[in-house]
Amino acid sequence: MSRRHRRRHRLFRPILRPFPGRKLPPDLRVGRVEKLAAALPEGLADPGFEVLMRRIDGAPFFGGNRVDVFFTGRDAFAAMRESGEAAQREVLLESYIFKDDSTGRQFLTGMKAAAERGLTVRVLADALGSSATHAEFWQEMESSGIEVRLFHPLFKGLWYQPFRDHRKILVLDREVAFTGGMNIGEEYGSFRRRPKPGETWRDTHVRVTGPAAWEMAVVFSEGWVHASGETFEIDPLPADLADAPGSRVMVLDSRPNRGQAESAAALAAIGSAARRTLWITNAYFAPGHQGLDVLGDAAARGVDVRLLLPGKTDVPIVRRAGHGYYGALLERGVRIFEYQAAILHAKTLVADGLVSVVGSTNLDFRSFVFNAECDLLILCPITAATLEEAFLKDLESAEEVKLEDWRRRPLTKKIGDRVARWLSPLL
After folding, report:
1. What is the span of the domain harbouring residue 339?
2. For 44, which DSSP code?
3. Which of 57, 173, 203, 417 is catalytic?
4. Of residues 99, 152, 323, 345, which has the active-site annotation?
5. What pLDDT is recorded for position 196?
6. 375 among known catalytic residues
7. For residue 103, pLDDT beyond 80
8. Which of 161-170, 185-194, 288-297 has the lowest average pLDDT?
9. Which pLDDT score, from 0 to 100, does residue 9 have?
């Protein structure tokens, strides 16, 4: 067996990437990786960009994928239900919030049916995010043959309470997977009726069909075992499946002490390699000084940098923390828009019509220090065009924040924004 073949065989074994305990080399960390990305002759279109991403994360790009994007809970949940009904062996569902409401009940009905068909069904929910869901709901799941685990149960292991499972993952037969910003709850839309305008949250979810779904099963297994679930076997992925034509996808997953520095460096590298556009939608925005530099430097290079952020929010203090960064961003040429039509909960990035990121990660301290997260880095012009079209449509329901107006806001708001920004690491 050649050295190259042995390397590829190891690459596609069911192991976590980045490896637990891996130390990101200094030249690939935020603060230095930006120079490597900016030096790519063709930016995000350069062959060296994919090489740089693999160096940063230690993970492969999986080819042979089809990516579908959903912008409403009604559409995303319908696709999840349809894919679940077609599953033949296994359902893996991981969600920060799993509510006992009409949407949660619909998911429960689908999973009961899967268990009755003889499928293995595992559900992992975060204990804090799902704290409003009563124990009887989980007991009903278990009595139906569904395996259930709660991540970091409340009042058990107090030292670990700040660390939460913020992922939103559904994997079916390790061949189809969903992820994005949507939890399981009616706020994204009800199965029973069509919502009124502005009633449901604005969010983005993706379905990936192909080898990347196998990698997401590996990511699920990490949280499952951490929550005291039994280890389950995942067969290696044949390398030739990941070389097939189709969207190329890297799974950017992280948890405390694994992958967080890599995910931050990957986002910084994308921003630094962008040449034309860098459009970001984010629900909870408090990026810190290094994030400011990446966005400001891109704008200074002439990149069209736009941020779509919440005008309405379920966590006002985090929105105020984000306001604490507006002035510096506006002064450096970054354009900021606040979405007014509904609560904005999406976490997406699209750059140069080539690179997209969709997942659960917010641009705040909590996502990069305390949370387990999962995002898909997608190299596909079709997916990028879909996200660009949605971004421009969202801007029709947004108000742009102008520097002159921002400077004229009341002193009380300026002080409140500054205080919230100081508190952002605690939020």
Report:
1. 13-64+247-426
2. G
3. 173
4. 345
5. 66
6. no
7. yes
8. 185-194
9. 47
Q: Is there a single domain that holds both residue 29 and residue 154?
A: no
Q: What percentage of the chain exceeds 70 in pLDDT?
A: 92
Domain for residue 413, yes or no? yes
Q: Residues 168, 205, 323, 394: which is the catalytic one?
A: 168
Whether 347 is a known active-site residue: answer: yes
List 352, 364, 375, 417, catalytic entry: 352
For residue 351, the domain's CATH number is 3.30.870.10
Residue 1 has pLDDT above 70, yes or no: no
Residues 103 and 222 in one domain: yes
Q: Which residues contact 108 (CB under 8 A, 6 or more apart)?
A: 137, 140, 141, 144
C-alpha dist (Å) from residue 68 to 22, 286, 386, 400: 32, 29, 9, 29
Query: How large is the C-alpha radius of gyration of the chain?
Result: 21
Active site annotation includes 166: yes
Tokens 């190299």 map to which residue? 379
Q: Is the peptide bond prior to 18 cis by the omega test (within 30 degrees of 0)? A: yes
Catalytic residue among 99, 152, 205, 347: 347
Active-site residue, 352 included: yes
Return the higher-pLDDT residue of 5 and 138: 138
Instruction: Give the length of the chain.
Output: 427
The reply to whether 235 belongs to the active site is: no
* Spatial separation of the C-alpha atoms in residues 336 and 334, rounded to whole Å: 6
In the annotation, is 173 catalytic?
Answer: yes
The phi-psi region of residue 62 (left if phi > 0; otherwise alpha if psi is between -120 and 50; otherwise beta) is beta
Q: What is the pLDDT of residues 380-414, one digit of tens each?
A: 999 999 999 999 999 999 999 999 999 988 887 77
Task: Give buried/exposed letters for 91-113 (b at 16+ CB in 10 A, else e).
Answer: bbbbbbbbbbeebbbbbbebbbe
Please check whether residues 329 and 362 belong to one and the same domain: yes
Geometric angle at alpha carbon 234, from 232 and 239, rounded to 5°: 170
Catalytic residue among 152, 166, 205, 323: 166
Query: Which amino acid, residue 83?
Result: S
Classify the phi-psi angles of 128: left when phi > 0, otherwise alpha if psi is within -120 to 50, otherwise beta: alpha
